[in-house]
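Structure (tokenized):
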């Protein structure tokens, strides 16, 4: 069961990372285009808004993928000197606390997205609605929480962390 969930999670995280990568590429093109056009006194309208929206997508959708590959910063220098049982306990507590934190972030972002949806809030220059980007961030946080939950289950069941290539 857990292996099937992990495979589905890996596929979802990879899809989200592709979306995040595409959004980042669009941000680069948009920023460069705006710099060139600004030199001719015709800046791209709404660049600041689009950069913010796309930045939320990049940040939210890359979290879980980074956790799968363990590419977040961690302090292992001192941690590796502890006895194995203490390492397992600390890893489990860290995964649990992080899982709760990102679940809370997902819940609060979703509540904020619902508020913005009900309010009908739009950006000032382009008139783009905010709520889809807030929901995207909430989904990214929920995926991060789920990956951390899988890490916790693996740690408590004595399985090795996922080895992704």
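Design, position by position:
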């Amino acid at each position: 069961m857990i292996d099937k969930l992990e495979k589905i999670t890996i596929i979802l995280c990879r899809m989200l990372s592709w979306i995040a990568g595409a959004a980042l590429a669009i941000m680069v093109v948009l920023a460069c285009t705006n710099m060139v056009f600004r030199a001719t006194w015709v800046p791209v309208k709404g660049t600041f808004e689009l950069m913010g929206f796309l930045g939320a997508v990049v940040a939210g959708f890359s979290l879980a993928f980074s956790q799968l590959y363990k590419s977040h910063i961690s302090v292992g220098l001192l941690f590796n000197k502890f006895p194995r049982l203490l390492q397992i306990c600390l890893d489990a507590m860290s995964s649990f606390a992080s899982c709760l934190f990102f679940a809370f972030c997902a819940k609060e972002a979703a509540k904020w997205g619902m508020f913005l949806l009900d309010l009908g809030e739009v950006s000032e220059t382009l008139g783009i609605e905010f709520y889809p980007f807030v929901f995207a961030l909430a989904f990214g946080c929920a995926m991060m929480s789920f990956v951390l939950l899988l890490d916790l289950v693996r740690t408590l069941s004595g399985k090795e962390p996922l080895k992704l290539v």
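Reviewer-requested clarification: The chain has a mean pLDDT of 92. The radius of gyration is 19 Å.
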